[in-house]
Amino acid sequence: MSLQIREEARLDIEAAARSFNPTEPLDSPSRRQQNWPWWPLLPLYPYGNRCTIRRALIPGHVWSFEQLQGIFHVVVPIRMVVVSVPGGLLAYAPVAPTRTCLALMRELEAIHGPLLAIVLPSSSGLEHKLPVPAFARAFPGAAVWVTPKQWSFPLNLPLRTLGFPAGRTRVLFEQGLPFPTVLDWQRLGPIDIELGWFCEASCFHRPSGSLLVTDGLIALDDVLPELLNADPTAVLFHARESGREPLRDTPERRRRGWQRLLLLSLYLRPDCLELPPLSSCLGDALAPGLRNRRSYFGLYPFRWRDDWQDCVHRVVRGGTPQVAPILERLVFPRRRAAMAHWLAALADLPATQLVPCHFRAPVPLAKDSLRQVLENWCRGPRQDDASISGFLQRLDRTLVAAGLVSGEEDVLLGGRVVD
Q: What Pfam families would the database entry show (predicted)?
């Protein structure tokens, strides 16, 4: 089975690499296949040009559709997971339905049956919410399921106003659950985070032993994801030491750039990153060979300390599952009991692999892998993480001081939740 997975993944990735050329005209046939016209609603890199790859995680049962997203070349893969269900397919956390994405989806439908359900498993993740209406229009026969407490900003509008089909949109847990004979659903939240609500629905696919999660759990790998090989611009940008360096392409620089992207995407401003003076940044701008969009015209506001690679090793944690640092430091610092209850429910499932919507996937799970995550969570934030996440801690204190989030905490004692 592993050889088949690798072969299917290789063919899909090679097809994506052949179809992508960042210097190609915007109106070229291949760029039109990757066009995402609704990107201005959430202007994330790579904006309107969304390259898509499909990987068979378990042939015949689980597939991953991956695209890139980020800000200022701080990009990570975002993943839609498609699983087999009785009579057809279910899509978990849709990505932008470009022509390429839809064509890859139609190929699966031709073999495994129609798409029967589309699931938005997050109430707060705009990157997961925005593609759903367009994805639903492309598959008018599919039911649309959303987590409770959906909300929008700056105006909290009804889902039908946001483009969700009123006649076939249902709320998970409150109005039932799709395909309960083969899917086991667990809920994290809803949690009032003052600015809105956080709720995530995880899905255990019994036929494959796969546990699908959105943002609550991640696993990391300091090896460059295959998707970024189709367009290595972002990793080459961050592999540099100053804005004067050109975007030279070597395997070592690709890996170094990805390791730095891990720190930036997880901690926003990790403590091993310093910001150079504005005068220095402007002095490097428009240097010869850097007067182009790919290098942001030489603007590079980063200066890495010598110990940054030590931070990478501490963050990766051997590729084991962990709670995402931004969630731990900004969303759950005072709602640790809710996360503990969810992790305990997941630990009781006979899952053999974890499939998050970001970073590494699939992640093999040993019998007690998620039980260990729960025990680590109940012990509180790791001390070595505190030496990297100073910015997130300061940001959290600022939000509390401004009255934007509550300072009231729940309690965890000895691995036991005290409500």
A: DUF4336
